[in-house]
Amino acid sequence: MQSFNGIYKKRRPPLPGAVDIPEGAKVAVAASPPQPPPGCNSPELHALLGERFNSGDPFAAARHNDHQP
User: Fold this and answer.
1) Which of 32, 40, 61, 63 has the fewest C-beta atoms under 10 angstroms from its C-beta?
2) HSE value, Cβ hemisphere, 13 Å, CA-based, for 35
3) What is d(CA 34, CA 36) in angstroms, rounded to the nearest whole number?
4) Which residues face 21 on adjacent strands?
């Protein structure tokens, strides 16, 4: 049995070109909802960004280039 993976676009399923499926053969389609990228809108990401933003150092922005020669 052949299997194809792809993203459904413009009301058409993805096919890798010509497929060898006999006329009248039964086919099964399994759809899954799109998944957000890993880490997107995760509580861990927001906690990390919150720590960086709320460092408690009011002069951190003024020193961001201190490591530069």
Assistant:
1) 32
2) 6
3) 7
4) none
Residue type, 61: A
Quickly state the pLDDT bin for 60 (edges 50, 70, 90): confident
**DSSP-derived 3-state class of residue 15:** coil
Report CA dihedral (29, 35, 37, 41) to the nearest 10 degrees.
Answer: 180
C-alpha span between 4 and 27 (Å, rounded): 12
Q: Give the per-residue pLDDT at 1.
A: 67
Which SS3 state, helix, strand or coil, does residue 38 take? Answer: coil
What average pLDDT does range 33-59 have in this prediction?
A: 73
- Cβ proximity of 8 and 14 under 8 Å: yes
pTM of model > 0.85? no
Q: Measure the CA–CA gap between 45 and 67, rounded to whole angstroms.
A: 26
